[in-house]
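The freezer alarm interrupted the setup, so I double-checked each line after restarting. Inputs confirmed:
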Amino acid sequence: MTALFVDEYPAQARLVRAAFLTAFTAFGVGALFGLIQALHRTDVFRFLESETYYTVLTGHGVFLVITFAIFFLVGLYQWAVTVSLERGPVDMRISWTWYGLMSIGTLLVAISILAGFLDDPPTVLGSELSADVLFTFYAPLQAHPLFYAGLATFFIGIWLAGADWFRTWWVWKGNHPDERIPLPTFMVLMTMIMWYVGSIGVVVAIVVFLLPWSLEIIESVNPLLTRTLFWYFGHMVVYFWVLPAYLLWYNVLPKVSGGRLFSDPLARVVFILFVLLSTPVGIHHQYLDPGIAEGFKFIAMTNTMFLLLPSLLTAFTVVASMEHGARQLGGKGTFGWLRALPWRNPAFTGMALAGAVFAFGGFTGIVNAGMNINYLVHNSLWVSGHIHTQVGTASALTFMAGTYWLIPQLTGNQLISRRLGLIQVVLWFIGIVFMTNSMYRAGLFGVPRRTAEPQYGFEYDVGVGSMAELDAQIALGGTLLFISAMLFLGLLLLTVFNTDSEPIVDGSIPPALSGPEDSPRVLDNLRLWTAIALVLVALAYTLPLAAIVSRGGLLGPDVNPFPVVIDGLKILQYVLPSIEVVPI
Amino acid sequence: MRIHTYEKLWLVASMVLIVGFIATVTYGSVGLGITMIGDDESTIAPDDIGDDDQFGEPRVEQVGEDEYEAYVIAQTWTFQPDPIEVPAGSKVTFYVTSPDVVHGFAVPGTNINAMVIPGETAQLSVEFDEPGEYGIICNEYCGAGHHDMEGELIVQPEDEFDLTELTVEALESVEPGADVELTVTIENGELDPLETTVDTEISNETIQQDITVEGDSTENISITIDSEDLGEGDHDWTVSVDGYEETGTVTVEPPGTDGNETDADGDGDDSADTKTNETTGGGGT
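Predicted 3D structure, all chains:
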């Protein structure tokens, strides 16, 4: 048993704990908002105006997929780099700087979103504070400048974090000239290359167009252009949420299964494939957008299908590693080994259930990716089902399970109750099954996502079951998920204060069955993979972006901004442009 | 690179699966002809929509035998026209644009689904085989009233569908002794000629007149009744054509009233004392 992380790297443990604290605070708020939505849109319990639902929805998206997922990522990656390179960053002040930038950015974004709950939001910088624009902030919906400025600050913080890890690795490399990059660090560096390549789009959209536009420096934007730049980033970012889970599945899951990773070389190949393919596919989110030629959509479709490959490879390696572990623990038979797995360990069970949900959700993703089938499901509740199985479970449940394993090493305290932890992860699984199976089904009948009241003047043609039954499942699932989230946070809080205890966890990660020596060194050539990724992005995006700009211009065909906080009179002016509104 | 035999098999199977998926989508495009919304339409500035040939008047238009075009505006928080009416057994091409924010144009229960982006026009063609009634919803968040944005799509039985528009202009009052004149305008938006009968009822008189309106054109007829036959007082009139009906009332003034309100040539150019009703689309009652 090696020394505890907190004892060996106290300064880094503090940073990781700070990142996790921010992540889990956001998780708590986001989970509460999720519960409100589940009850509101199904009309089980409505205590907010439906207008305010969109403030809740924006907060749910931003706090969970931006704040929670990415703060967890930086915490986990700081841990992974530190343990696998066996050293801290060159300068911890830089590390705290990126943490600070990300936190300030989050705060600005959170303030601008939460102002939506006020009846009379304050005026800041000459405009009313608001950001009911959802996680995708499609122009001409316009948020307050603070929202865009906060996002930009947050992104700069992430860039700096990546640079910090690259610098740590660079110094390590100087001291270990002939060694292969340790797998966890390799995964961190590849994820960050993917992030650098893929975040260009959204940063350009925000810094060049949306922020100046919200400050009235430029008069209009091209909505199709900013939207396309968003989606250039928008599919890469889903892998940014999922890859920390992959890191845990490849490194921690085999270990808690009682064995070791099956194949280090294929783990590297998987991460390389994500670097290459995760960005030149973004147009598959725009299959139904006018102004983008069908050919470009077809190319995005084929690229997307090949993205299945790294996930299928992962399924094999992870299951093979689990089987190896089970057999070490005495498991026998073709399927009998499954019984030998440590199902009482919440870290194991959480990750295994998350992986199972991910496999199912992956196939629903094929439906989304299937260009012409996309007509059936685009913007329907099916898509919400997909994101909740993938990010909401594959990532989030793995993060929680991984936290059960990590938290004793980060605090030196024993997890307060493994049994409650087990109940928590199983509860999450049950909740997500109720909620997403009904979301998928409702989506197929055309029930839309992102709406406060999906009840209309017509009746949905529900093939099997009824709308009432689907709504009940969503409300029940959402409630179970919320209880599970609160249970998790409660366990975490008690563990943090459980100082009078011995942490019983072995933080060491055994080497893979087939190690890096079984693979060619070219896999570690980061420059090569970056260059190929950039070429693929250029091939996939140069022509579509050029076409969009030549059609509508950089700033669009005179599109007027549409600030989202609008008082009644202004709404009437939009709805009834021909009627002169006389204030009473 | 050393790869386990099972893993090699898995890799091959994965590639077969991926190529299979791409093949099915390709078959959907090439074999079944499911095309994607593309970039065929030119951009349109939101402020120009009101003056545009296509979107200035949102409508359904016949462009060929069993072929129609629908020009639709999605705007916070309505769809125009509403309802959209098309015949069964037809192919309808929708053109949808937005003057304000990004909207969705989706018909639950079908695969009609498009993003509506200001500056761009979504074009999609749909075949309607069977009559039916559907809801149209906006499925992209578009502001505080997003959930109220709803329209109606009615696919009418082929024999009940028309693009006939009936307008009747008439004076509200006439001097005794003058003629009561109803100007009936029938617009035929379909390509085939419309052969029909105009039925006019006023007091107890019934007048029938046959009329043929050529495809994609408009005909006017005048119906004249001597006010002396009607007598002094209020007289209700009804004009009906193919199930469309317009009604109104004309007053024959008592003798000696100042005849200022009379419009000598009866063309109703004084809008204050004419009554105009319009009915569009619809279908037989």
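Quick read of the result. The radius of gyration of chain A is 24 Å.
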